[in-house]
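Lecture notes, unit on binding sites. The following record was shown on slide 14. It pairs a sequence with 6-O-phosphono-alpha-D-fructofuranose.
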Amino acid sequence: MSGGITLARHIMTKSATALPVADLALIMERIELIATRITRELALAGLDGLGYTGETNVQGEKVKKLDQWGNKVFLDAFEHGYPVCSLISEEMDEPHHYSSNCRDNSYCILYDPIDGSSNTDVNGSLGTIFAVKKRAPRHGSGIDDILVPGTKQVIAGYILYGPAAQLVYSAGAGVDIFTLDRILGEFILWKENVKMPPHGSTYAVNQGNAGKWHDGARKFVAHITSRKDKRTSYSLRYCGAFAADFHRCLLEGGIFMYPAEVAEGGKPKGKLRLMYELAPLSMLAEQAGGRGSTGKERILELAATAIHERHPIYIGSAEEVALAESFNVEG
Ligand code: P6P
């Protein structure tokens, strides 16, 4: 047990963070509020049946009421969320700005409020994924200062809503994990400076799409499941929520992949979004000693040209990601 070290208390002990600890504390206090509100809602969602709205989001995906509600939880929290002045969300076509929060040291938060929302209906795990980037002084109404590589992220994290609600984040000084004590209503330190095992024994992918991938991706999966020895006998673990599947890699090693689909009617860039899914989790992977790759290049070096752009992803233990790259998984 960590002796009940709260998130706020732990932040005060952080050093060598990518942003001033005072700004980190202000931002993470809002994240903690959001996480607590979503945890409470999910506990009831199964009763309220927060199913589909009948609309589709910018991704052309059916929007669940929960996705829209989760986005509003962020908008409400950051309306009084100085020093964050801009929000970019999977659920909004365009960025949202709170000019009253703009100062020389203001930030943009990029997020997927409810990741894996289709799991709601089957009481499965879901996540919230977020990243924070510093805005340029006097940045104006454009977002060129946000369309920069993931190496410029100052905070990255996710909340995993599973049997327990856990908040995982890094501000550039290691990865720390907190578990929600629902009685206290506080996130309590569970593990600090978490390191990802150099290799694991599971892989996570929607194998139903294998026929659409590059041949190298199929060959990679065939290799790690060819049962010749322990290192080619991986088990498939895939739950349909990126944060949940990544969390397994963080703690036990292994790899998560969502390849490009080059076959007719496939998703040519894969499904997951760079700015608020791949870049934050790749920062966490690297902070924990793992890697995040497109199959060809380091995710954190990619600068988005559009806020909802997608890329293929191979993320997890350093050895598995390197092995995948050696199979030319993306052609
Ligand atoms: P598929 C959820 O919709 C999500 O964005 C990720 O959380 C998850 O890893 C992936 O898509 C699942 O996609 O195509 O396997 O249903």
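Take-home: The two ends are 47 Å apart (CA to CA).
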